Amino acid sequence: MAEPATEEVQENVNASANATARVPSTPEGMAIAYGSLVIMALVPILIGAFRSVRHHKEQKESGEKPDTMTQKDAAMFPIIASCALFGLYIFFQIVSKDYINYLLTGYFFFLGILALTHLLSPVVSKLIPASVPKIPFHLLLVKGKSPQTEDLLNYEFTSHDLVCMGLCSGIGVWYLLKKHWIANNLLGFAFAVNGIELLHLNNVVTGCILLGGLFFYDIFWVFGTNVMVTVAKSFEAPIKCNLHMVFPQDILEKGLDASNFAMLGLGDIVIPGIFIALLLRFDNSLKRKSNFYFNATFFAYFMGLVATILVMHLYRHAQPALLYLVPACLGTPLFLALVRGDIKTLFKYEDHPAEVLAENKVLTKKNE
Questions:
Q1: Residue 276 CB: number of other CB atoms within 10 A?
Q2: Is 98 one of the annotated active-site residues of the chain?
């Protein structure tokens, strides 16, 4: 997935979310940049994990069919990601890179607005004056005729949500026109929080398969071939920022117009984040009035991120962040569960047990 980085070395040794750096003008600037990146990685995980708990409860109360990643999905994910990466590599050998850059700009523009709207809507709704009516809307697109129908689109929203979308669209246009790093971070932050909140791993085994597969994926494509380097260098700087949280190392010298960025890939936030969120839901299921496994793994993620940055600067070479984050995020809860006698309970835990899912399917068929 990626590594913390700066633009110049990224041109030489980077990957999908990997980065290193030209030496910043001052040690203070580098410290501020990487310290800020660490914070920008921790905060989305913290917020997204607790929002995932609320989302999980809402699903159980409403009987909504959960959208979870299966073990097969987790096993196929690194393979699909590898095919997509190699496909881009071939694409850039044949077709102008401008086409894919335009496509990704539009993709992140529209999805970024939706993600930011979903994140900020509750806050904006509270700030809107009571004089503005909160009118409900229901957007429904159905395939087929009753009683055998299939919902293609079923979305409920209010006039307040539309106001929020208008504000978020302004941020999206700001990003589209200026490619400013603050606008980029706002969209990236929304992507990360929504990914951690909505993408659920159903059990620890699925999480181990996913993180383990991406661990080897990251190492192979960064160190084993030049494919990821070639693809990374083919993207324009604004597109690279799309895939990263960024913070300028020269902010002390240039202020908000700074341009020498340190970067951290969104994948290095979301992928470990969905596993850490699963551990928070596991803690809640134990009903021990503590978030022991979540807190321990959250701290392990922090230490893994710090280790990535330290090793990168020690050896002056790009480092795949998942090389350090995966062992930290998997090894810590498994070791602690073994010591505390919770290892069987940990592996038996499921957000949505199979029998409950089967029961929901039967009820759905009866309702139809």
A1: 25
A2: no
Give alpha helix (H) positions in the chain. Answer: 7-13, 27-62, 71-94, 97-127, 159-178, 181-198, 204-219, 227-234, 237-242, 251-254, 267-286, 292-315, 322-340, 343-348, 354-367
CA distance to 30, 327, 345, per residue, from 340 (Å): 40, 19, 11
- Mark residue 63 as left, alpha or beta (left: phi above 0; alpha: psi -120 to 50; beta: remaining): left
Predicted pLDDT of residue 39? 95
Residue of 67, 73, 257, 268 marked catalytic: 268
pTM across the whole model? 0.84
Provide the token pair at 347. 């592996």
The low-confidence residues of the chain, meaning pLDDT below 50, are 2-3, 5-24, 238-239, 355-358, 360-368
Q: CA-to-CA distance for 310 and 138, rounded, in angstroms? A: 51
Beta bridge partners of 261: 248
Q: Check if 342 is active-site.
A: no
Residue 218 and residue 323 in contact, taking contact as beta carbons nearer than 8 Å = yes
Residue of 67, 98, 161, 218 with catalytic role: 218
pLDDT, tens digit, 9 for 90 and up, residues 31-64: 898 999 999 999 999 999 999 999 888 877 777 7
pLDDT per residue over 150-167, tens digit each? 777 778 888 889 999 999
* Residues forming beta bridges with residue 136, ordered by sequence position: 158
**pLDDT attached to residue 297:** 97
